[in-house]
Structures are given as structure tokens and as C-alpha cells.
Amino acid sequence: MSLARCANGHMFSTRKHGNTCPYCNVIVDSGLKSENRRAVAIGEDEKTMPYLGEVEGIEPVTGWLVCIEGPQIGQDYRIMAEKNFIGRAEEMHIRILGDNTISRRNHAVIVYDPKKRNFYLLPGDASGLAYHNNEAVYSPTELTAYDVIQLGRSKFIFIPLCGAHFEWENNTGEE
């Protein structure tokens, strides 16, 4: 669960809302998150703040997309198990803000299959194309570490965590 506090003091889920506060549209710099978290711990009794986001359990990350070109350069996006729908709309699993050439809904889908331990890039049902290493994606394409994915004018590097060398299920039984 990743929470951020904007300059106006609003708490919100960065997973659901990206780095833009849903109350006042202030963009929170990811470098300030750690400072804001410390500030929250110190002044917790100041006032009650609304929380927008998931409250049940932790959904383990399986990999990341890191923006290397486009309006959100440097921003990382968590990839969870199974389907991750990508777009600009609030309900997307991976919400990319600032690039209006990315479709609002289902521009592309990244799938992590925990049984086969591999990642795939699927084209979405929107009008925009997704590119995998500069090739248009028309059917499921398997992803490997450091593949470049282009959506609209933004480019991302794919970084896997789970796969042949690591899986969350293997670690849960050991503790």
C-alpha cells in the first residue's frame, strides 16, 4: 500500500491516483514521499484525514514499469499478479497521467501468470497501439527484463520481480 500526502495535507493512494492528489490536483514529487511519510508519523494526532484506496491486505508486487520517456519520466508503476489494465482513467490498474495520447481505458494489458511465471503484453481494446521493442503488438507478446514498451508518446522499461528465480508463494510457507 503506498500513501502520499500532498502539499495541502491530503492523504491518498498513489497506486489508485498516481502522483496527483485527487482533491486539489497537486502533483506530489516521488522524492518527497519519504519526507511526507516521516511528517505523517510525527503529526499523526493533528487531524483525521480521508483515505482513498484499498484497505484489505497487501497485494504483492510482481514487477514494475518505469517511465523513461514522456511526461511521467522517472515514475514507476507496480505490476500485480494476473491482468493489469493500462490507461489514463482512474479505474485502471496502471494509471498513466499527463500523456493524452494514451487511451483512457485499456490501452494495453500486462499479465503476470503465477502458474507459468511469465509476463505478457497484450494489446488493449482501445484505438491506440502498444509497441514492444519498437514493434506493434497485435497478439500476446512475452516480456523479458528491460524490454521497452511504448504507449502513446511515453516509453517504459519493464522490470520483473517474480519469475523463474522468485515467487511470492514460495516465501509465504517459510514464515
Automatic annotation (TrEMBL):
Residues covered by the FHA domain: 84-136
Write down what this protein is called: FHA domain-containing protein
Q: Which InterPro entries does UniProt cross-reference here?
A: FHA_dom, SMAD_FHA_dom_sf
Among Gene3D superfamilies, the record links this protein to: 2.60.200.20
CDD domains from the entry? FHA
Membrane-crossing ranges are none
Question: What's the short name of a Pfam family annotated to this entry?
Answer: FHA
Instruction: Say which species the protein is native to.
Output: Aneurinibacillus migulanus
